[in-house]
Design goal:
99 residues, putative ntp pyrophosphohydrolase like fold, mainly alpha, 0% strand, 70% helix, 5 helices, globular
Length: 99
């Protein structure tokens, strides 16, 4: 199986954006820094998930590792979206080896 053409086709970005909107979190359409409290709370969630991911790997628990991986993806995408970043464009750069 090849790379997903873009994240929009996979539905991931829209799923995460929808979750943020349902939680009344602003998702700007242009890059901008969110307020410091929002940035701190999103960064803290991501940091906590990195620890959970490492713990799952160290315990060799594939179920926990799968869940932790999904949370890492979700949290990282959430952080990018609250900063108004174009994650689809960045995904294409990764896929084509441009970053």
């Amino acid at each position: 199986m090849g790379w997903v053409t873009d994240l929009r086709n996979a539905g991931w970005v829209d799923d995460v954006r929808g979750a943020l909107v349902r939680a009344n979190v602003e998702v700007p359409s242009k890059p901008s820094w969110p307020d410091p409290d929002m940035l701190h709370s999103r960064t803290k969630l991501l940091s906590d998930d990195i620890v959970e991911f490492a713990d799952a790997l160290n315990s060799r628990d594939l179920s926990r590792t799968s869940d932790a991986t999904a949370w890492l993806i979700h949290r990282a995408m959430s952080l990018g979206l609250v900063c108004g970043l174009d994650l689809e464009a960045s995904w294409v750069k990764i896929k084509t080896g441009k970053i």
